[in-house]
Design brief:
The structure is a homodimer. By secondary structure, chain A is of the alpha/beta class. Chain A has a domain of 172 residues: Acetylglutamate kinase-like (Carbamate kinase, 3-Layer(aba) Sandwich), CATH 3.40.1160.10. Chain A is 35% helix and 25% strand. In chain A, helix 1 packs across helix 4. The longest helix of chain A has 16 residues. The two termini of chain A are 37 Å apart. Chains A and B meet through helix 1, helix 2, helix 3, helix 4 and strand 3 of A and helix 1, helix 2, helix 3, helix 4 and strand 3 of B.
Chain lengths: 406, 406
């Protein structure tokens, strides 16, 4: 007997038939003696349909009204799921974000959750009701509808689980768990039984798109155990949880990669205090996220400054940097969009030496040149030529013993 | 400079193109210096789509969840219209029923409006915002979404107009006003410039489906002037308002007809006190609306009792009445579904004699037998054989001088 929060994504509730399947699974969980709170997304395709309507009616939809519009997507799903459960003989009740309420700031289309009173849901659970909540949406202090941005339903689920101090937050998705790396690249990739919040954050931010990053941050902050699993069968998925002793014994948990960045070098920069600040301030002002930054050792008072930015921002960055480079007397600016960042991740890393060395020698054995390196407590990232991405991921996966035993 | 409430039905907002047209018309009204509050229905077809989803997911949808589901229809329209107005450079703001709030009782799918605080809308109007409200929906004391039943958007509009003490409530529909009778039956039917609440109620309840009855009752109670007109051109429509001296001079304002009733006779009923009550109590308990009731003059202590009920309830009524007729010693029960009720309506009637006589002789001249008669202050209804409906309407329309001058 536990308090279980379950979240079903758009694919899991994508048709009437699938909504019935979800109701069946929810009912089973309830019949096992659990209290159940369900969070659902819009039926797959529905949000896109609504966004298309908005774009048809005008070029730049008001953000407040955009949220009023797209919030109908989840509203349809909660009503259908709740009436389906009721028709099966269960007591069920749907809640909009504004009814729970999920209180957010007023940043429409990308609102952040501020608080979730648990009184109403607790009262329903006490009366043995199954509670069905709309994900993705909230309400601000003025009573206006807000939404959390794409993928926000994961965050809704974890936040509601945190507010209720749920025993587990099950996130049902179209993959059956978190893998050591993308199985499309490494067929021998293994599903992980568990992974720490920190590792999951690195995996997510590096391109493994299983969970929305904010939901993992939320789970870490409030210590919510997330169970990532599929709604299409009953297998256990992956637990995302606080680091434990067992995790420590594993050197590397997963390999992530990201082809979405570009590398920019400012060459022959005068090696003086304040120069880096001069280069990066305009990027900050333009709201461009700089990821890795490397400054080579200075020779003859000149140095090369290299950094990565999202590929989509590359042109804009060059426009900002090139006149600046001239002004500060740099030799020039070069850019490369054919790069890829490959990372090994593991909480065991910080208590073991030699992991970096093993990564570098593994890549070197395959003739893969490392263009940039950055490290954190639980991660080592190397920038390599984009064409080597899959090869690098494969050899690292094998070298660190992540391949599934046959 | 006035406070104008405008209501646009599903057809008027049935496509993106039409929503743009509505926005244009709203903007024109605003540009003329008026404060404007707009009430909209769901885009035509949308409510049916949602109801089909509910019926797909289960046979008997929970009423609470049904309301959560169908309320999304108007939510989509208010967002689209408000964002369209904003993109045209106007300040606009959408309101759900729960945000205004339109407070109703908890009778889901057929809720009745209890009160509408005007504070929020007034504040927006003071800041020169165009306010866009979802029709058809409200919220009960528990914060649950309710809906007013099909056609409820008319009632929303009139109720909001009453709450704001608006100068006029314009109801845009797919006909351009209220006609002396159905123009499909009488091509010479004339659009009325104005009609009293009482006449409109008789017209509506007798089958002229321009306005929802409840909206007219509401308008009468709070003295709201309704302007029924079309959104497809700029012509004046029909004002529904308090009776004035001019209306008094018109004997008959319109001819209504209704083919939806059936006639039932209980024959040879012992003429004793309490018998009628015995016959009608089971119908009341079964929630069946009895319309006309006629008891013939008694002969030899026996009488015939005839009444009309909705055609759809006819079978059920016979099942209830037949055993009862035996028990009270009646001779038998007969029924006739091939009937029609034709009515002449006019506030001028109550101060003029001879109107009934003119009606009867007009019908008689055409050989139309009158099977039942009932009268009120402003209406005379005759039940005739269904096949004479159109003929009866046509000759009465001409006899009372309602035909359009060529």
């Amino acid at each position: 007997m536990a308090l279980v929060v379950q979240k079903y994504g758009g694919t899991s509730v994508g048709s009437i038939e699938r909504i019935r399947n979800v109701a069946q699974r929810v009912a089973e969980t309830f019949d096992q003696g659990n209290d159940v709170v369900v969070i659902v997304s819009a039926m797959s395709g529905e949000t896109n349909r609504l966004v298309a309507l908005a774009n048809d009616v005008c070029e730049f939809p008001s953000e407040r009204e955009y949220d009023v519009l797209v919030a109908t997507g989840e509203q349809v799903t909660i009503a259908l799921l709740a009436m389906c459960l009721e028709s099966m003989g269960y007591k069920a009740k749907s809640y909009l974000g504004s009814q729970i309420p999920v209180i957010t700031d007023s940043a429409h289309a990308k609102a952040r959750i501020q608080s979730i009173p648990d009184t109403k849901i607790r009262a329903d659970l006490a009366e043995k009701r199954i509670v069905v909540c709309a994900g993705f949406q909230g309400v601000d202090e003025f009573g206006d509808i807000t939404t959390l941005g794409r993928g926000g339903s994961d965050t809704s689920a974890v936040a509601i689980a945190a507010a209720l101090k749920a025993d587990v937050c099950e996130i049902y998705t179209d993959v059956d768990g978190v893998y050591t790396t993308d199985p499309r690249v490494v067929p021998a990739a293994r599903k992980l039984d568990k992974i720490s919040y920190e590792e999951m954050l690195e995996m997510a931010s590096l391109g493994a798109k299983v969970l929305q990053i904010r939901s993992v941050e939320f789970a870490k902050k409030y210590n919510v155990v997330i169970h990532v699993r599929t709604s299409f069968d009953n297998r256990q998925g992956t637990l995302v949880m606080k680091e434990d002793a067992e995790m420590e014994t594993v050197l590397v948990s997963g390999i992530a990669f990201n082809k979405d960045e570009a590398k920019i070098s400012v060459l022959g920069v005068p090696d003086q205090p304040g120069i880096a600040a001069q280069i990066f301030s305009p990027l900050t002002e333009a709201n461009i996220t700089v990821d890795m930054i490397i400054q080579n050792v200075s020779s003859d008072g000149k140095t090369d400054l290299t950094f990565t930015v999202p590929k989509t921002d590359c042109k804009k960055v060059l426009q900002l940097i090139e006149p600046l480079a001239q002004k500060i007397g740099a030799r020039g600016v070069s850019s490369d969009t054919a790069i890829s960042k490959v990372s090994i991740i593991g909480v065991g890393m910080h208590s073991h030496a030699g992991v970096a060395g093993q990564m570098f020698s593994t890549l070197s054995r395959e003739g893969i040149n490392i263009e940039m390196i950055s490290t954190s407590e639980i991660k080592i990232s190397c920038v390599v030529n984009e064409k080597y991405t899959e090869l690098a991921v494969r050899v690292l996966h094998e070298a660190f013993g992540l391949d599934r035993a046959e």
